[in-house]
Amino acid sequence: MSEGCFYCGDSTVDVCTCGTIYCTAHLYIHRPGDYCLPFKVARSDEVGRYLVATRDIQPLELVLWDKAAAIGPGADTLPVCVECLVRLKENFINCPGCHLPLCSAECIGGVLHRDECNIFSKLDRRPHLPSINEKHPVYSTIAPLRLLFLKKTNPDLWSRVTSLMDHNQDRFESDPETVGMFDLIVKFFLEELMLDFCTVDEILHLIGVLMTNGFENDHEGTSGRALYPTLSLASHSCSANLRHAISPGKQVALQAQVHIKKGEELTIRYTHMLQPVLKRRRQIRDVWYFDCSCPRCSDPTEFGTNASAVSCPSCHSGKLLPENSLNSTSPWICSKCKETKAATYIEELEERAEKDLEDIKDQEIPNYQAFLEKYKSLLSPSNCYIVIAKRYIQAILGNSEGLELDKLSITELEDKIRFYRTFLRYLGKLDPGYSQHAALATLEMSKAEVELYRRQVESGLGDKNELTKFIKQQLHVQTQAHRCLKKVKLEKSLRI
User: Which of 70, 129, 276, 421 has its CA 20 to 30 A from that of 54?
Assistant: First the structure.
């Protein structure tokens, strides 16, 4: 048998009934329950390890399941419970063993906190949390410490985690201040916690691994960061073919968003879909230390959406797009007058727009309308920030108290439907397939269409029988959208 294990390449292997070759240590990664996951690890000199499909995969099929190697508070979080990671309230308690904060007595003795509790309880000077509204440096140590414990408790998982890239050399060169932060954690672990089972290099490596590969875990009131060793091998693409099937937590699952062919690379999106190209590629370079050259980034028009386009300040009728979208310093050229602007002009404009959008604290329609008025002559109607502001407005209309669908005017309903039709065409290019964004947009549009049709019948402009047929059609549309949004139910044997 010439081919090695699908995950590690080991030559001491067996063959699954589906044809996948595995070693004993990694069978559970391929077949964590009664389902064979259709991926394997491939290797290249350019990107290292990555995941590919082992067979043709249909949309919405489960492709990857992974359990967190460690989960803990984010390094820069406001105070959370060190067990369940929920944001602390004024009535929080201190762990009776080590004095670290817990949300309630229910979290005393919890599995996540147990090992570090034994370590922190030996400190002469235990951490003190002065306020639930102030960040505390102890939170930057919890997740790395939980990864370090794997060296003693789970050698195979330790090996999988330590094989991940840390990008520390790139990080220290681009931001020398991080060296001091890393050194403080090392000093705390070795001199105060007196850890005797790990080295300086191991600690530095794990902090870098967590920063490079960790996933934000902010949902349902929790605030944390988790490391998934298999998911960390998935490559990035701004037009990814995988989507989250369940929100990241103690476990994560991904399913196919589009049809994936055997041998095709499996990709996820590291950044938000609605980001312009300069910001998107800069974020990828700053956090993950590579230059994205995916199909979307390679196309100045971003599949014809012009999602990064800005208005030409010279002729006021053309769109500025990058001459070379893979070069961050490339000039931007007007589609009509051919005037050029430096990339710095685009970056400064986008930064102002992003800040103004983020500064809208009260999510009220007039505030977003004021934003649109301010930038209508500066950004193209298809620019991400314009689309985001319009989407916020339409999300408020029909879903807020006093602005329910039956209280909207005919014009407001027609505007809502018109926006979502345009938005769905936009998403069809940027986020094709079984997109959760598209499913939500479809639901919003369908409900508005039903309400508008009902109004027309009430005013004598439509037939009641036709309304009944239309409602049935739209219920089918909504059922399909809900199917796209439905979270994967993992079989009992997959759950933690």
Answer: 70
- Confidence band for 491, pLDDT divided at 50, 70 and 90: low
Given a contact cutoff of 8 angstroms between Cβ atoms, the answer to whether 15 and 21 are in contact is yes
Percent of the chain as helix, strand, coil, to the nearest 5:
40, 15, 45
Beta carbons within 10 angstroms of residue 447's beta carbon: 19
CA 88 to chain CA centroid, Å, is: 24
Q: Are 119 and 100 in contact (CB under 8 A)?
A: no
Cα gap 453→135, rounded to integer Å:
52
- Joined tokens for residue 54: 């082992």
The model's pLDDT over 13-72, given as tens digits with 9 standing for 90+, comes to: 899 999 999 999 999 999 988 899 999 999 998 889 999 999 999 999 999 999 999 999
83: which 2 tokens? 């067990």
Looking at residue 190, what DSSP letter applies? I
Q: Are 94 and 278 in contact (CB under 8 A)?
A: no
Determine contact, residues 209/161, Cβ cutoff 8 Å.
Answer: yes
What are the backbone angles phi and psi of residue 362, rounded to the nearest 5°?
-80, 110
Dist CA 432 CA 445 (whole Å):
18
Amino acid at 218: D
Mapped onto helix, strand or coil, the DSSP state of residue 169 is helix
